[in-house]
């Protein structure tokens, strides 16, 4: 039986995310009879990690690994599938336990257990030790306030069981805790709602035209009109959190306002030492989104485009792309950086980014991202042959990258005067677009429009009398499509020639 690579298996996908420390701890986990008695899983794992992190070696196959686990047995596909499935389940259980071990809220479970066992005094003592110092706030995010709320509520419940020595002290403490719990849950809710709404704004901008009067829009408008942000901003310890989130909202809603963007950025930098890493990562993501929207809708997009380039580099250099979900540069972020650098004609800057940060991409994606970036770099440098060579080395499954490659090849074919190849590519492009079940119909229109005008551009270039450049320019200016600027640029060349010919006649 022919060996089959394992690199697409869910288990392998998960193992690629393990750090060196996690790999060692998982080995100990599998060795413990407390967690599993299946020693076959440990043997399989030890053999598997020899191929870390790519798992693409010729010997990384089901058959080869099976022979290592069961050297005296003939290969059994069903047994191997079960082994891989069981090891994947064990890996999921392991990362869950690791998350619980690192969870800042784990102490709440201890408090609840002590309370339920009638150990209120011990629970209160332990709870008081866990209460955060509001005068030294750091590692702040929405979860901080949820955790703070849970701690205070536990203390309220416990004081009902085990009261203070003096009744008045108990009453005062109770009222203070109730007020603090209200502040904490309100801050948590406001921050979560605002952050989710900012995601909603960006999704609506990408997939739907125009604002809606749905629940999220009405809720945010209600919060803005209620004065609740102003009230929260007056809090001595946590008011700045409300200020930052309100500024984030302003920067995203008032698209095109460089002033709102710079205010938001200044606040993020001012309070960065107080944020958790994930919180800081989130804000930089929102700053980038605000810049992109600003470049789209501002009359003076140059400011936003220059700022975006600087923001991207800062993000990469400081590692703000890292969060609780990934330690690698996401491929979609890398894509955005490459495209923006080419758009800005910052080719030396792009080359520097490729050289300095490529190794921070997911290991399995490094070669694809290298060739993707080089394809655009060579194209923008006028070396179309090298660009096509880089494209030929790509093995990318994500649809968004495939669209990029279609568009890039089309521009290369056109500019190299390979019009028949360009026409064939447009046909393939249409078929690919038709087969895409994930892209919304509204977005597909942008691509169809692009293909329509690209076809007309080729016809005009080849001397067709059916279309006139000036007419197509005026029509295109009223429509939206991908790579609109490139189409207008190429069409304008023929429009200018026509006007020059007319004036000469």
Summarize the structure in words.
The chain has 505 residues and is mostly helical. Among the domains are: 10-102, no CATH class; 106-187, no CATH class; 397-505, no CATH class. Helix content is 72%, strand content 0%. α18 runs antiparallel to α19 and α22 packs parallel to α24. The chain is flat. It starts with 9 loop residues before the first helix and ends with a helix. The relative contact order is 0.04. Mean pLDDT is 86; it is low at 499-505.
Q: Class by helix and strand content?
A: mainly alpha
Please report the distance between the alpha carbons of the first and last residues: 76 Å
The biggest sheet amounts to: none
String of helices and strands: HHHHHHHHHHHHHHHHHHHHHHHH
Assign an overall shape. Answer: flat
Q: Radius of gyration over alpha carbons?
A: 29 Å
Count of β-strands: 0
Proportion of β residues? under 5%
Would you identify the regions where 5 or more consecutive residues have pLDDT less than 50? 499-505
Q: Tell me the helix content.
A: over 70%
Helix run count: 24
User: What value does the average pLDDT take?
Assistant: 86
Q: Which helices and strands, and how do they pair?
A:
Layout: H1 10-15, H2 20-31, H3 39-48, H4 62-69, H5 77-102, H6 106-116, H7 120-130, H8 142-161, H9 167-207, H10 215-226, H11 228-233, H12 239-253, H13 258-270, H14 277-297, H15 301-318, H16 331-343, H17 347-357, H18 366-380, H19 384-392, H20 399-415, H21 419-435, H22 441-461, H23 469-476, H24 484-504
Helix pairs in contact: 3-4, 3-5, 6-7, 6-8, 7-8, 8-9, 9-12, 12-13, 13-14, 14-15, 16-18, 17-18, 18-19, 20-21, 21-22, 22-24, 23-24
